[in-house]
Amino acid sequence: LLSKQTAKPKEKISIIIGDYGPMWVYPTTTFDCTVADPKKGSKMYGLKSYIEYQLTTTNTNRSVNHRYKHFDWLYERLLVKFGLAIPIPSLPDKQVTGRFEEEFIKMRMERLQAWMSRMCRHPVVSESDVFQQFLNFRDEKEWKTGKRKAEKDELVGSMIFSTIEPEGPELDMIEVEQKCEAVSRFTRAMDDGVKDLLNVGQEHWKRCTGPLPKEYQKIGKALQNLSLVFSSSGYQGETDLNSAITEAGKTYEAIATLVEEQPRKDLHYLMETNHEYKGFLSCFPDMISAHKAAIDKVKESDKLVATSKITQQEKLIMVKRVSTMSYALQAEMNHFHSNRIYDYNSVIRLYLEQQIQFYETIAEKLKQALGRFPEM
Amino acid sequence: LLSKQTAKPKEKISIIIGDYGPMWVYPTTTFDCTVADPKKGSKMYGLKSYIEYQLTTTNTNRSVNHRYKHFDWLYERLLVKFGLAIPIPSLPDKQVTGRFEEEFIKMRMERLQAWMSRMCRHPVVSESDVFQQFLNFRDEKEWKTGKRKAEKDELVGSMIFSTIEPEGPELDMIEVEQKCEAVSRFTRAMDDGVKDLLNVGQEHWKRCTGPLPKEYQKIGKALQNLSLVFSSSGYQGETDLNSAITEAGKTYEAIATLVEEQPRKDLHYLMETNHEYKGFLSCFPDMISAHKAAIDKVKESDKLVATSKITQQEKLIMVKRVSTMSYALQAEMNHFHSNRIYDYNSVIRLYLEQQIQFYETIAEKLKQALGRFPEM
What we know:
The structure is a homodimer.
Chain A: E1 13-18, E2 21-24, E3 33-43, E4 48-57, E5 63-67, H1 68-82, H2 102-121, H3 129-136, H4 140-152, E6 164-166, H5 173-209, H6 211-231, H7 239-265, H8 267-281, H9 284-299, H10 301-306, H11 312-371
Helix pairs in contact in A: 3-4, 5-8, 5-9, 5-11, 6-7, 7-11, 8-11, 9-11
């Protein structure tokens, strides 16, 4: 907290005051990164196999290859460097067994993609050396050099705040503390809300892919079976009814399939978004702790000055640093909120759209089945 | 089987040959009977209470009152008289506890109504003295007299066949046996089919009124809770999103109610119809046994004639009686099939119509919820 080390001019991170308060400076051109084309590679004459993904940066259209463990390296670097100022969500889980299975590779790729897009959208992370280098190295040598450089970076942990330059006036400590409390309260409440939704969603997923379609299948089979029995009556003039009942039965079997496949089309995305946010939110306790520790230090700084443990000058630097931390937290929260609003708006819309289509498809299928019943 | 007693002319039951084979003669005017207006009555100075229903016959528009135990008396009389020729379905279950509860009274009345309508629609049962008397007595005295008369009726059990007069030629024993076998096979298969559908329906009912709406409610609550958390962010410009999420949550709560109430609107009728048919079908084993016993008697009749146990004349009467039984069975099956086709067509149509409306209502509600989300 007392460090006086100043960052190289290149490493300055600015905070400006926008309509919604402190904000990061957003780069004028943005980019995304696609993660695609998983390929099995091998090392040590085929003794070790791994999956390599192709990462293509949208603004340069150039590609690099990375394995999961490289992503993991990047995650560690970002966490060490920015973790006290910016929530860096975890990567999708490591997994030992079944990691060459198609379904697993597809799911991991989808999540790595989401993670990379998320990082590309962050104005500070996306512009950092380590991130840029991860996407833009030209050859193995450049990658190795960049890697070593990132690992030697000293502007990490709480040092990151020494590189941040807010444009506003120094904040008063009461405001700093209130802002910190508000973020703590909000993120804890949202964490609960997100976990609640994830639990409900998981339960619903199980029902929709388990007992519910089985039941529709049973209804379908029972109707078809009844039609078969009816056909054996030997009574004339019921052919139309019986084929209609058979169709109704088949319709319920089709509904079973629709029900079973639906969660992939809607609940999946709702779950993924909430899963991502759960990842973000789990970063806040550490961030908040660092902030609170710094605030506590400032609070006792008068005593330290009085007992000559620190100078008045040093105290002022501490106060300024805490103010910077608060600016950073507010800038990050504004980034977080605007993303959150966009993400939840998109994903709930998608969910509702898909649900509407689902119910309309079922109604349409049932109408067709109904149309086959004879008028009596 | 050997009885020579001939019925009074009034009691003759004719069978004619129609397009679909042997058939009962349908009366030119039909009637139905409404069971309504359940009233609590009491006897013995209020010591014994009971529920009395008002039965109104549609062709005369006259009403009589009956208690459940009167229906039970009628059921017993019809079973004793016609039970070997015509399936007489059981009444709704007796119940000792809670029999004055509104819900129970309503359900019982609905089932007594269905049972009475079923009996009114049967050309033989509806025209019988005992049934007519049950609906048309003028006072307590007439009711008592009719009751005593019915209880003394001797044309019951296998004697009923002595009152039946088919217009066709005597049937050959091989055909009789085949028809009986076919009815046995069909009714057993339909019994399985109906029970299967009842089981599936019951399971589905439980899910639709239990865990499923609870889950939709949880989804609704989770969304509303998330919106509440979002509203506490202090970030500006998310009011529209948050009220949209709240509405989406409320929509899922409304869907929970729709899901929970739906079985009453569709599955209920499918279950009731199948329940009624289960009642019919449970009568067939006894009917089939009586037929098979008669057929077996005829089969050994040559031996009985040879050993002078019966005369040739008696044998011929037996053969004729079995032929009559077969005519009756065929006439009854034709009645059964035409009712079955009508009933299942109606009830599955109703089920599908209600299901379509259900899914369309949900889609409509979701569309309204979607419409509240802001464009971004």
